[in-house]
Amino acid sequence: MADVIIPIVTLIVGLIIGFFVGVFYLRKQLEKMQNNPDMLKEMAKKMGYNVNNQQMNQMQKMMKNKKFK
User: Fold this and answer.
1) Is the dihedral angle over the CA atoms 48, 52, 35, 67 positive or is it negative?
2) Which of 6, 34, 39, 65 has the greatest number of beta carbons closer than 10 A?
3) Residue with more model confidence, 31 or 28
């Protein structure tokens, strides 16, 4: 019985910890991105968009209003 319960509990705990570490990492990346316009441009290029300065300013304002806490 313990041969089944321990791996299942370990899997669930690992998934929970992994989720919270992933959320923490993503929030840190978004905070870095809102302060660095070059990272925003690079992300937009990877998504297939070319942004001009006006669009870049709009993106930065939008991210700063979106408080990542």
Assistant:
1) negative
2) 34
3) 28
User: How far, in Å, CA of 33 to CA of 35, rounded?
Assistant: 5
Tokens of 18: 């992994």
Q: How many CB atoms lie within 10 A of CB 39?
A: 14
Q: Residue type at 23?
A: V
Amino acid at 42: E
Other beta carbons less than 10 A from residue 68's beta carbon: 13
Judged by phi (left if over 0) then psi (alpha if -120 to 50, else beta), residue 37 lies in alpha
Q: Given a cut of 60, is residue 37 above it in pLDDT? A: yes
pLDDT value at residue 67: 62
Q: What is the mean pLDDT of residues 46-51?
A: 86
